[in-house]
């Protein structure tokens, strides 16, 4: 049986968490928290693919340059170069594991697998598994993880806080099972792979979005958070008020999809020379402006001009899903709206995923590595998950020599909070963020959000300190404080840059500076 110092605790079972667990488990025992909800998380719903320099005609410098442009001056170039350089090896690793990427059958194909192009990319460099890449990668990694003898999985535990010793080093996590019973999981090193904060908003592209819980748990131990104000809204989420969220991949536009307004007119060429393939922040704002101008609720994404066979071959999942909702995309345009999709900010890390808290790592969307800057370029997210998961796994091969147990926790007391009460408060939070801190912002709206979140925070603080914790209450407690930190950074950024657009300061400052904040900065 392994000792606590030998174990690595991984919180989250998307692509980042699974990849790290699998790459590390031959060297150290891994405990993986992967609740059932992770099967409906952001990784599984990633349709488009993974960006990497794979075509012989493409090159690293071009991918770096495209990423830096999309990041609007806030990318860390060293992080960009590191990620792009590691991309081909990460794809080779997935191929070795058996991920069924879509092949290119053409005899003259420069690369054995089909490469598509997405917004911001100057070349075809997106490797994909039809239009369900996330599902293909997740299924492959899960099968390997389940078969590995040194990975212990806990599907019924939810982390609600991190444990610290007297020096402030992370020593594991405080968890609750599905009955609300508490379990302490001790570990020599802990890795957050818990996802982003799109769930702070009412409408997202994921059926089961995270709300930045991991970011806030890291902040509770003293970690810095960076660039929280840069929340990416995917331009094209299927508009269907009666159905669950469903992303329409950027690859649809990469293969020739055209955005049209309510009158059927194409509008993107007049806004940006890259038209439908402009970076996501530009496309999302353009769609939002069209909706506001037309007084409608969506715009149209039209790919019906392509041969039906081509659409069905490239986008079988999207085609089948839309058919299930009564829409044949080979014959009619798709109604789409922007929806909260990806958090470009998160926990500050180095190039090995290490945070400023000893023995605490963060990888994937929960982390702020410097790769994305003020706007993430399409399909760089799964690339980041893989590259930093493998980098962190290399850094974690040896157990720490400074193990000491965490400080004891006070026992949880008090009555439980009714689930309906928590859900109503979470919905109130989402409404504030969606109305005042979304695609287009202004000073008055941010001030209103700050005031409303302060008042909401007083109510949530009382619940947290006087009631028995539950996973839902913990999520509300974490997400409320993260929302307040996000608003604070949005107010402090006196410019418009990338995903942060403020009507009252629409110009971009000449000097680009990332923004950082700590939990102690909340007053």
UniProtKB/TrEMBL annotation:
Coiled-coil portions: none
Function (record text): Catalyzes the oxidation of L-aspartate to iminoaspartate.
Chain positions covered by the region annotation Disordered: 501-523
Cytoplasm as UniProt keyword: no
InterPro entries cross-referenced by the UniProt entry: FAD-dep_OxRdtase_2_FAD-bd (IPR003953), FAD/NAD-bd_sf (IPR036188), Fum_R/Succ_DH_flav-like_C_sf (IPR037099), Fum_Rdtase/Succ_DH_flav-like_C (IPR015939), NadB (IPR005288), Succ_DH/fumarate_Rdtase_cat_sf (IPR027477)
Domain FAD-dependent oxidoreductase 2 FAD-binding: 8-382
Pfam families: FAD_binding_2, Succ_DH_flav_C
Protein name (database record): L-aspartate oxidase
Pathway: Cofactor biosynthesis; NAD(+) biosynthesis; iminoaspartate from L-aspartate (oxidase route): step 1/1
The protein's required cofactors: FAD
Molecular function terms from GO: L-aspartate oxidase activity
Catalytic activities: L-aspartate + O2 = iminosuccinate + H2O2
Keyword entries, A-Z: FAD, Flavoprotein, Oxidoreductase, Pyridine nucleotide biosynthesis
Domain Fumarate reductase/succinate dehydrogenase flavoprotein-like C-terminal, chain residue ranges per copy: 427-508
EC number: 1.4.3.16
Family: Belongs to the FAD-dependent oxidoreductase 2 family. NadB subfamily.
């Amino acid at each position: 049986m392994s000792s606590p110092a030998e174990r690595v605790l991984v919180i989250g079972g998307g692509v980042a968490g699974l990849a790290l667990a699998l790459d590390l488990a031959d060297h150290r025992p891994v405990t993986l928290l992967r609740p059932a909800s992770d099967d409906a998380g952001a990784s599984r719903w990633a349709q488009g693919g993974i960006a990497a320099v794979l075509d012989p005609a493409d090159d690293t410098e071009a991918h770096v340059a495209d990423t830096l442009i999309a990041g609007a001056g806030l990318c860390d170039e060293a992080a960009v170069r590191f990620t792009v350089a590691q991309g081909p090896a990460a794809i080779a690793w997935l191929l070795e594991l058996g991920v069924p990427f879509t092949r290119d059958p053409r005899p003259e194909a420069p690369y054995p697998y089909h490469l598509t192009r997405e917004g911001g990319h100057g070349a075809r460099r997106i490797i994909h598994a039809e239009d369900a890449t996330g599902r293909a990668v997740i299924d492959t990694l899960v099968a390997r993880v389940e078969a590995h003898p040194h990975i212990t999985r806990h599907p019924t535990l939810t982390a609600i806080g991190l444990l610290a010793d007297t020096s402030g080093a992370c020593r594991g996590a405080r968890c609750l099972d599905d009955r609300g019973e508490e379990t302490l999981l001790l570990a020599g090193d802990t890795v957050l792979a818990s996802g982003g904060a799109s769930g702070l908003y009412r409408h997202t592209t994921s059926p089961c979005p995270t709300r930045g819980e991991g970011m806030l748990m890291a902040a509770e131990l003293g970690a810095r958070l960076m660039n929280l104000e840069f929340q990416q809204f995917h331009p094209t989420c299927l508009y269907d008020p009666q159905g669950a969220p469903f992303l329409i991949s950027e690859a649809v536009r990469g293969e020739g999809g055209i955005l049209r307004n309510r009158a059927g007119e194409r509008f993107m060429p007049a806004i940006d020379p890259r038209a439908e393939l402009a970076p996501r922040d530009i496309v999302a704002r353009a769609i939002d402006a069209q909706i506001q101008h037309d007084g409608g609720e969506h715009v149209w994404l039209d790919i019906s001009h392509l041969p039906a066979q081509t659409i069905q071959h490239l986008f079988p999942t999207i085609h089948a899903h839309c058919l299930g909702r009564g829409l044949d995309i080979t014959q009619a345009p798709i109604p789409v709206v922007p929806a909260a999709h990806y958090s470009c900010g998160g926990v500050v890390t180095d190039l090995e995923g290490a945070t400023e808290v000893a023995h605490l790592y963060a990888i994937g969307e929960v982390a702020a590595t410097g790769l994305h800057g003020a706007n993430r370029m399409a399909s760089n997210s799964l690339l980041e998950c893989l590259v930093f998961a493998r980098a962190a796994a290399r850094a974690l091969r040896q157990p720490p020599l400074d193990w000491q147990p965490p400080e004891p926790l006070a026992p949880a007391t008090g009555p439980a909070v009714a689930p309906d009460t928590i859900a109503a408060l979470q919905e109130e939070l989402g409404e504030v963020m969606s109305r005042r801190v979304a695609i287009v912002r202004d000073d008055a709206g941010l001030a209103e959000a700050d005031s409303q979140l302060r008042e909401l925070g007083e109510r949530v603080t009382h619940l947290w300190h006087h009631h028995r914790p539950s996973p839902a209450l913990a999520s509300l407690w974490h997400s409320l404080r993260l929302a307040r930190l996000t608003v604070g950074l949005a107010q402090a950024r006196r410019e418009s840059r990338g995903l942060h657009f403020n009507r009252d300061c629409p110009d971009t400052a000449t000097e680009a500076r990332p923004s950082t904040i700590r939990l102690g900065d909340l007053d």
